């Protein structure tokens, strides 16, 4: 593992701890992903989530049909229009998920030190001593002594709704297990996870393939970012290869916490986030404030956990059950945003910057050199904001890679394209995709033709960006602003001092 000093600035003054948190135009540089579902799919609640700081909405396809999610998406679009807040969309595919099927949906009580049989016969009824599963290869994958976990722990964090089993005997396709703790399973489906065992199932299910074909027909697949969700020992083993191919990484700590001993989870988090940061790829951490599913406040441990995820270098915090079916989705987003903002104030940017520069292979690319120079300049002159002109979003993402202490306003300039039959604008896609990157706040400029890239149009777009910064309170009179833009073939970093 790479050496990873605590990314914390010294010293923290007690006075600053006692000061009340100051609200800002954005709740935090770290982004918040909210899962939309039962408790959070109405236009009102989604609007509340957007105003509280949600910048990406997640749709979990492991439950609910496409019509259900489509209606939620329509509500999200309405909420975006009414709040005037940009929001990205994350589609979480089903993947090779093992599940226990309870057709009657009656709660099932399991008693410690008794036996339960797992069977692939899904026609049978789920009872306290027989649980049908959706996978016929379970008996071939496990052996006596293996650990199997069933329940909603991945979603709730409550031991009373999940059960640990130890395989005691394999009989044909059935697997008999000893129940290690008493629990009550509720609902139609529970996740089944076999600890540290490779389950031979395709990563993309038929349902996932349908989603991929649909994206292909829309012609957007080549623009869609694909994030890899690391959730088992296999993902840990092949992490470096996965990081090379993926556009971003989601650390599914609920699942990882089953495959790894509790004392190892934090090491994996630190190492994985470090590697993502150095590669300049967004990293998302899950399972941080489980208790807020039912409570208005997080536990002290959870609040500390959110802050540590920020200090470790996370781009975004993903909320699952807390917003999906939690009682306080808007309050949860607001609380997590406040914790992130406080952690960002003491993030050791100087140490991080040196480490990021050191990790870039020499000679440094032209774009990387401009991005790191822009951040260095902004920090030296104490700029209030960095404004970056971009069409693909790559330049702005590279600036954000160096974690500047001030927000990066990414001015995405749409390009006019034609396929001889119709004209289309590109840009909105790129703007929304930056909503998962820490410190990056997109602004969509007026569309223009590539030939119109004159200094006059650049100046008029810069004025719009500065006015936006002033209106939101991030830029004030006499502030300094660093601007990064392309002029012809050259890239330019300039410092502007604002008058009254």
TrEMBL record:
Names of the cofactor(s): K(+)
Keyword terms, alphabetized: ATP-binding, Glycolysis, Kinase, Magnesium, Metal-binding, Nucleotide-binding, Pyruvate, Transferase
Domain Pyruvate kinase C-terminal: 368-488
Superkingdom field: Eukaryota
Catalytic activity: pyruvate + ATP = phosphoenolpyruvate + ADP + H(+)
Gene3D superfamilies, sorted: Phosphoenolpyruvate-binding domains (3.20.20.60), PK beta-barrel domain-like (2.40.33.10), Pyruvate kinase, C-terminal domain (3.40.1380.20)
This enzyme's EC code(s): 2.7.1.40
Keyword Glycoprotein applies: no
Pfam families: PK, PK_C
Pathway the protein acts in: Carbohydrate degradation; glycolysis; pyruvate from D-glyceraldehyde 3-phosphate: step 5/5
InterPro entries from the UniProt entry: Pyr_Knase, Pyrv/PenolPyrv_kinase-like_dom, Pyrv_kinase-like_dom_sf, Pyrv_Knase-like_insert_dom_sf, Pyrv_Knase_brl, Pyrv_Knase_C, Pyrv_Knase_C_sf, Pyrv_Knase_insert_dom_sf
Keyword Nucleotide-binding among UniProt keywords: yes
A GO molecular-function annotation: ATP binding
Domain Pyruvate kinase barrel: residue ranges: 211-333
Family listed: Belongs to the pyruvate kinase family.
Protein name, as recorded: Pyruvate kinase
Phylogenetic classification of the source organism: Eukaryota, Viridiplantae, Streptophyta, Embryophyta, Tracheophyta
